[in-house]
Specification:
The complex is a heterodimer of chains A (302) and B (317). Chain A has 15 helices and no strands. Chain A is mainly α. Chain A starts with a helix and ends with a helix. Chain B is an all-alpha fold. The chains are: A mainly alpha (302), B mainly alpha (317).
């Protein structure tokens, strides 16, 4: 009763000032929407336009002379396909390693009866505040013989402290203490409890961990830049850097289209951006809530 | 008196030991579980910290880090006496504070505006779209910038010429470097950063809004007197984290945006360390520069956190 009576009255009381205020907000947010969306649409449109249209500045919003030449070239360029394959491998293997290690660390730290957990937690979080630096870390990786090996992209940055904090606070808030006590009385071992109770109950947080590590691994280039030397191990991001940022299109083009080489090189850049980003952006609307969840779980002080 | 305290200390010590033994006995599986990730942290995070003594030595490949001769503060002195020191410090700080000043309030404003909108669909679309660029990799982000800002064919210059203006070599101008860096960063992360404030806004006690309504507050007044105080703790924590990261400003993007023309503005401590250490193999010197950076950063973080604790009772530890 009270609610239905209040609603129309508030509408009447909406002052002129408030209405202008709301109009301004809608206007600003619409501008924001356009500013964010426009470059993305522009790149997508360019990637499926003809090489001539792209280089002569004919593309403004929608594709001009739709063609898929850029994508065809990508799929015929071994360097790019190798990079794609490598990135898929690094993403899959890296995510598996990272998620397993993160749970192995976060779960014991969530157990109240685990002696030394605050000391270990301090040890772990301190690395967020201070680190040895680039060169000393590089030396360690070198000493372990990981330079120019695939392992260099999977191991040295396998565990992110932030993910550990998120996972730990999730375990703490969702696994009831009574359940742990009951399992202890029944003589259930810690491993078994983790495998058959904790993991099945923690699917949401595992999804968050998997997604964050997977996107991080797919987008990373720095470790590859410093630790890898041979081209055949390069992830897609490094191939992209070489072709787009350093402008090395040599070896990419096949000689039959040498005439339009320059135009093709330009178009190829747009297509490459789309190929490298689309997989992530397409699944993103369906998994956005997991990322939001991840951010919010982490922000609860644990 | 003294004896009693001693006794108590011994008792608690024994208590700790007994607790440890008991925990180890009952939960050896947990300790086994935590061993690999713990080794990871010791090897890849703490061992490098020990390796940082390199900064006080002259690295000798044959003798290794620990066998190399000590040289005290030589590398630090070399760095501080080098005129590039001031350039690096200036570039690092200017870029960081520019990013902080422009990049910190925008997500807050975005969240406050989104929070005013009750219509579900528009709000969801804006949120979905503004969040999306967060997933674009650094390499792709810089690629996009290079394509848009290219000297002749780039979108920005085509547009300038369209209006009869002279084309600009955006990425070659040292004066434009910081703006390009900062505003592309905001484009990419504002939507993502707004999420945390939106959550804080959603947690505000609804009775406060009702009270404000009864008092005849306008929407703007509600934002100022209810929303802002409500998200202040969150804002403080994020501010601490941001200030604490002032010296660690992203190497990855700066390095990719760098070229010989914009170098006067784009060479920062992190890129200098990379160039000196990994490209010129000047290990000890680069380690010293990196260590200087890390220490300043730690001091900054502790200072800001202490200040915030004293001023508003909010802190990150």
């Amino acid at each position: 009763m009270a609610i239905s009576a209040a609603a129309p009255r508030r509408k009447i009381r909406e002052s002129a000032g408030d209405r202008t205020f709301m109009i301004a907000i809608y206007a600003i947010l619409t501008v924001v929407l356009i500013v964010v969306l426009y470059p993305l649409i522009y790149i997508l449109s360019s990637s499926i336009s003809s090489p001539t249209a792209v280089t002569s500045g004919q593309v403004w919003l929608w594709p001009v002379d739709i063609s898929f030449k850029g994508f065809e070239t990508i799929f015929r360029t071994p360097q790019i396909m190798t990079g794609y394959g490598n990135s898929l491998f690094y993403m899959t293997a890296g995510t598996i390693v990272s998620v397993i290690l993160t749970i192995m660390l976060a779960y014991p730290l969530s157990r109240k009866s685990f002696f030394g957990r605050s000391a270990i937690l301090m040890l772990v979080t301190f690395t967020m505040l201070f680190n040895g630096g680039l060169i000393p870390t590089y030396m360690v990786v070198k000493e372990l013989g990981l330079i120019d090996s695939r392992l260099a992209l999977l191991i040295p940055n396998a565990v992110w402290v932030w993910q550990v904090i998120i996972a730990r606070s999730f375990f703490q808030s969702t696994i009831p203490g009574e359940l742990i006590e009951a399992s202890e009385i029944d003589g259930c071992s810690d491993w078994r409890f983790l495998a058959s109770v904790v993991i099945p109950l923690s699917k949401p947080i595992i999804a968050v961990l998997v997604l964050m590590y997977a996107v991080g691994q797919w987008n990373a280039y720095f470790d590859a830049l410093i630790y890898l030397k041979s081209d055949k191990l390069y992830p897609l991001q490094l191939v992209l850097r070489s072709i787009i940022i350093q402008n090395n299109s040599a070896g990419v083009m096949d000689p039959s289209i040498q005439v339009q080489r320059a135009q093709m090189a330009e178009l190829l850049k747009y297509s490459l951006i789309v190929v490298a980003t689309l997989p992530v952006l397409v699944i993103y609307p369906f998994v956005q809530r997991f990322f939001v969840q991840g951010m919010l779980v982490g922000s609860v002080k644990g | 008196m003294e004896k009693q305290t001693l006794k108590r200390i011994r008792r608690t010590r024994e208590g700790y030991a007994a607790q440890a033994v008991k925990s180890l006995k009952n939960h050896w599986q947990l300790y086994l579980l935590i061993l690999p990730p713990l080794l990871f942290f010791l090897i890849f995070k703490y061992y490098p910290m020990a390796n940082a003594v390199l900064a006080f030595k002259d690295f000798n490949v044959i003798k290794g880090i620990w066998g190399s001769p000590w040289v005290g503060l030589k590398h630090f002195e070399l760095f501080f006496e080098n005129p590039i020191f001031w350039t690096l410090l200036k570039n690092t700080l200017l870029l960081s504070f520019y990013l902080l000043l422009a990049g910190f309030p925008i997500p807050i404003l975005l969240a406050l505006m989104l929070n005013e909108i009750r219509s579900g669909r528009f709000r969801r679309v804006v949120q979905l779209v503004t969040f999306a660029p967060y997933f674009i990799s650094t390499v792709v982000m810089v690629s996009i910038l290079m394509l848009f800002l290219a000297p002749r064919l780039g979108f920005a210059n085509v547009a300038l010429q369209h209006f009869g203006l002279e084309p600009i070599n955006f990425l070659g101008e040292p004066g434009m470097f910081r703006s390009i860096y900062v505003w592309s960063e905001i484009w990419q992360t504002a939507g993502y950063s707004a999420v945390i404030y939106l959550a804080a806004l959603a947690g505000i006690d609804p009775t406060l809004y009702e009270a404000a309504k009864v008092d005849g507050a306008s929407r703007l007044q509600k934002i100022i007197h209810v929303d802002l105080p409500g998200i202040l703790p969150t804002v403080t924590i994020i501010l601490i984290l941001n200030v604490g990261n002032v010296m660690t400003i992203g190497f990855e993007k700066i390095y990719l945006l760098q070229n010989s023309l914009n170098l006067p503005a784009s060479e920062v401590i992190a890129t200098y360390v990379y160039g000196m250490g990994l490209l010129n193999a000047n290990y000890s010197f680069a380690t010293a520069v990196g260590l200087f950076n890390s220490v300043i950063n730690l001091i900054l973080l502790v200072t800001v956190n202490t200040l915030a604790k004293r001023l508003s009772n909010t802190s990150i530890w």
